[in-house]
Amino acid sequence: MVSYQEILKLRSLAKSKPVAGKTGLDRMVQNLAGLIINLGPYIETIPEEVIELADLACFPVFELPWKVKLVEVTQEICSCIVMKHLEERSISDFMEQLLLKPVEDAESLIQRALAFNYDLSSMQQVAIVSLRGLPEYRQKQGITEEQGMIVLKMQLKQQVRMVLVRRGKNCLSMAWMDTLVLLMPSGKKTVEARQNVVILAAVVEALNTKFPDLSVAAGLGKRVEELCDVRQSYLQAHKALRLANFKRNSRPVYVYEQLGIYKLLFDIPLEKLRSYYEEIIEPLHEYDTRYKMDLVSSLFVYFEENGNVV
Fold first, then answer.
1. Are 17 and 48 found together in one domain?
2. Number of domains comprising the chain
3. Is 288 domain-assigned?
């Protein structure tokens, strides 16, 4: 699906002018999503009542000179929607192949990425934006059909795209389960890696602002030079996000390279961790309960500070 911001860039709408419902311009174009009025011999001006009602409903209304034929506008919009759908599907297929399957032909992937105006020859980094609470949000909003979920995810992607455009960052993205996955170019310099963290924080802030009933956080994998290692960055982003599920003080972005001791814990089999908990942590927890102490929290902070007791 496409947004109004993209539709307004079409050649046939070059002379159009939004006159009402401008707060709805970030919506996806679907069903009865807006109104285009040819001004001319039959309708000379748009009534103020229409403008006021459209503003109230965040329903975009555009005026268009009479010499521009609506049939041409309709054809170009339909063509744009179809091409956008094909492009989104193609990008998703490309990212699934890159992130979920072994890389067999790196040069072929690089050439495919160029078709999306994306350079795979530089260092890459994978980010995962987690949409926690999505089932509850879906129920609260009354979204019962799959089409409604598709529209919601497209709106989420549109918000992400707007942040990336403002930041001058060209990324590829796909919706996967209850997440948005971003393929982000990076560089060898530390400052370039920090830029991705800042951009991701802006993405999380924008989504939390636009969708306050969702709890959004992001995980960021390591920078990699070889395409065969991009999947590893994807898995690291997943591991980083696991911290968001139990950290007391939630942060917008969890960076794998900054996890410290947690990187070791993630590589230990669950059964061994459970055995360690029962042997070491559980007695501490029982001691805290009995004597009203807080030793477990102190140990937690110790790990968070990477063993720094100062």
1. yes
2. 3
3. yes
CA atoms of 202 and 215, how far apart (whole Å): 14
Burial class (CB in 10 A: 0-12, 13-18, 19+), 169: middle
183, pLDDT greater than 90: yes
Distance CA 253, CA 262 (A): 15
State how far the Cα of 87 lies from the Cα of 102, in Å rounded to an integer.
Answer: 23
Is the confidence at residue 179, as pLDDT, over 60? Answer: yes
Both 248 and 282 in one domain: the answer is no
Same domain, 280 and 189: no
Q: Return the structure tokens found at 201.
A: 């924080």
Half-sphere exposure at residue 54, Cβ-oriented, CA atoms within 13 angstroms: 22
* CA–CA distance, 201 with 169 (Å, rounded to integer): 14
Mean pLDDT of the chain: 85
Q: Would the pLDDT of 247 be above 70?
A: no
DSSP of 181-249: EEEEEE-SSHHHHHHHHHHHHHHHHHHHHH-TTSEEEEEE---BSSGGGHHHHHHHHHHHHHGGGT-SS
> pTM surpassing 0.85?
no
**Cβ-based burial of 196 (10 A; exposed 0-12, middle 13-18, buried ≥19):** buried
Closest C-alpha among 254, 282, 249 to residue 273? 282
Residue 95 lies in a domain: no
Query: Considering only CA atoms, which of 276, 250, 258 is closest in space to residue 196?
Result: 258
Strands 35-39 and 123-132: unpaired
Q: Are residues 10 and 34 in the same domain?
A: yes
**Which tokens in the block code for residue 228?**
């065969």
Burial class (CB in 10 A: 0-12, 13-18, 19+), 26: middle
Domain span holding position 277: 270-304
